[in-house]
Amino acid sequence: MKLSEITNIKAVTRIIGSIHEVDVTGIFYDSRKVIQDSIFVAIKGFKTDGHNFIDEVIKKNPAAIIIENEEILSEQASKSSNCVFVKVTDSRKVLAELSKIYFNNPSSKLRLIGVTGTNGKTTTTYILKSIFDNVGEKTGVIGTIGNMIGDEFIDTEMTTPESPELNHLLNKMTLSKCNTVAMEVSSHSLALDRVHNLKYDIAIFTNLTNDHLDFHKTMDDYLASKKILFDNLSEESFCIYNSDDPNFEKLIKDTKANKISYGTNADSDFIISEISFDLEGTSFKLRNQSAVYEIKTSLIGSFNAYNIAAAFIAARKCGISAEKIIDGITKTPHVPGRFEVIHFNNKKIIIDYSHTPDSLDKALTSIRQIISNDFRLYTVMGCGGDRDKIKRPIMGKIASLLSDKVIITNDNPRTENEDQIIEDIKSGIKLENFVVIKNRTEAINYAINESPDGAVVLIAGKGHENYQIIGKEKFYFSDKEETLKLINQLNNELVVK
Questions:
Q1: 246 touches 156 (CB < 8 A)
Q2: What is the distance between the alpha carbons of residues 206 and 168, in angstroms, rounded to a whole number?
Q3: Could you give the CA distance from residue 73 to residue 263 in angstroms, rounded to a whole number?
Q4: Tens of pLDDT along 250-306?
Q5: Strand partners, 452
Q6: CA-CA distance, 493 to 115, in Å (whole number)?
Q7: Cα(445)–Cα(440) distance, rounded to whole angstroms?
Q8: Tally of CA atoms within 13 A in the half-sphere of 312 that contains its CB
Q9: How far apart are CA 66 and CA 118, in angstroms?
Q10: Exposed, middle or buried by CB within 10 Å (0-12, 13-18, 19+), for 235?
Q11: Beta partners for 340?
Q12: Hey, what long-range contacts does 85-89 have (CB within 8 A, 24 or more apart)?
């Protein structure tokens, strides 16, 4: 892009300096990454303020510096004759708009499907990828577990990246000949304008339950953030929503998109019925007017019927036949850390990302529906530090009521006192069916060793994550690997005996 393209952005209110017709070399919000002839956008963050680093940025000879603070603008402008200073009303939106321009508007060059909601986002994107892969389309995925360009996997630390990284990734996908991208759209990314100005062809709403209240403060604010995605859809796009969720009316009331509902409700456009599942998979029927589709999957739980229904509708709106969609659903692999079942002798160990009250309730309720009353259910769970404290007692209560034994342990305590987190969890428990084992490895070992024959052990909260954050340090840790390590050890002991 040329530097002069800055003048086309509506949020610009004042420019100090001469805009030279230079080729911009990059868009940055991190002062450490700024290079000559790039644009630095000063963002006021939660921990640091980009305006505080402008002296350092000037030394790197950027083409322009974007600022919200008028006082800093006047003060800094005299320090550099080569750099253009630009005052804007909203630097986050400007960052997204500049990123879109710099990377050649990539979202307009492919089919972009956004998936938002508290639970089910990751699984829905994986189902979509399997469907599109099944018809020979190269597909991209952006989300919690990682990003994918066809078969190439790219690690990520954010569900939805910041706008420069996001537009760069989408551009890379277009250059790699991806036709479709299935993207998780987090509430943070909507509230912080990371996805501002992207063109979505389809947006899916899965559900809305308590989560991220450390950031949003109230459920109304949380819903308002999710609503942004649907408010900005065009008349040509599709809004696919879960009509069983009580929040859907507020969420979609202002969208211009074509609305399509799914759920068990008889008024839904696509009606889910006859859900049946066990530890091998799930089957159900999906009805649309006179057409009835019988669907089978290795994914486990009634909640996956909802994820599949949403993906099915999206794929149909993209012109894929029902037969090809159902075949792609059948071929969907298990999503890492999403209700992954490990068999050990006559016990079943389930690794699941359930880290919200709703997802934990659904996981435990699903297990209860599968196993008979003769078998015990042990649950290993904790809650993250420096995050929403309201859900801790709720999750403790759910775990206690639906489990025979709860092992409370550390999740990611971060900088918060681990004992306080555990006390918060315990405050919601009224039964005496729990133990506290703070070391997560020891907690997993206890659950597997001490649970009786035929038991099911749910290890909840971290799922695909391969780390623990204790204090400010990040340590490698995987629930699945710890489980497999213990199973291997126990099997070796049996052989020795």
A1: no
A2: 27
A3: 53
A4: 999 999 999 999 999 999 999 999 999 999 999 999 999 999 999 999 999 999 999
A5: none
A6: 46
A7: 9
A8: 31
A9: 34
A10: exposed
A11: 351
A12: 85/15, 85/16, 85/17, 86/6, 86/12, 86/14, 86/15, 86/16, 87/12, 87/13, 87/14, 87/15, 87/16, 88/9, 88/11, 88/12, 88/13, 89/11, 89/13
Question: Buried (b) or exposed (e) across 29-57, using 16+ Cβ within 10 A?
Answer: bebeebeebbbbbbbeeeeeebbebbeeb
Q: Shortest CA distance to 266 belongs to which of 284, 289, 249?
A: 289
Distance (Å, whole) CA 259 – CA 277: 29
Mean pLDDT, the chain, as a whole number?
93
Here the tokens at position 45 are: 């963050």
Please calculate the CA angle 270-250-126 and round it to the nearest 5 degrees. Answer: 50
User: 293: closest CA among 330, 239, 240?
Assistant: 330
* Pairwise CA distance, residues 347 & 450, whole Å: 11
pLDDT interval class at 496 (50, 70, 90): very low
pLDDT digits (tens, 9 = 90+) for 465-475: 999 999 999 99
Three-state DSSP class for residue 89: coil
The pair of structure tokens assigned to 406 is: 């709860």
